[in-house]
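User: Teach me something about this protein's shape.
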Amino acid sequence: MNAPLEQPRGVDVEVERLIAAARDALTDEMVSRLASTAGDAVELMDQVNRAGLARAIPALAEMVNNGDLHRLVKLARVYGSAEDALTDEMVGRLTETVGNGLSLLDRASRGGAEHVVKMLEDLQESGALERIATMLPQLAERLATVQQVLQSIDAAAAASRATAPSAGGIGGLWHLMRDPESQETLRFMLAVGKQLRKGWGAAK
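Assistant: First, the predicted structure itself:
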């Protein structure tokens, strides 16, 4: 009748031997490492509970399911690659560019740029800005014509100073009128005068 009672007792003895063997196998370093790991795990769980990260688990699970987390990882890799590719010179140039841009914005703000923007908005609403944009190519052509006229006047003045003075009299005038180039020039000036008169008459 004592046999059934001896079997559990034998199992207890084996468990005690196993625990003793494990205790003997553990060194002080292993015990301290296990204690440190257990302490870190408890501290981590405490931080998770305090920060409320448990509420973020469903959102993270949804991001994993729809692939958003994978895309965020790819984006982080691209950002890391870009950061590794940047040299000190590139960073300095980017910093200088950003600084110049901020300085320009500050000067524009202090210089009343908002008034210029308001004027442009008024011109846009009235349609004047579109008309100005249409007339700019024509104005550029007219400015080129005016520049050519001024250059011609300067060249004529220089040629006149270099030429000997005319003898004057009827003979000189007759010689001037017989010159074909003088006749063409006079005809051109008369045509310009007619156009100016037409323009002034239309303006009135």
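Now, about its shape. The mean pLDDT is 77. Residues 9-78 form one domain. If you'd like, I can walk through any region in more detail.
User: That's plenty for now, thanks!
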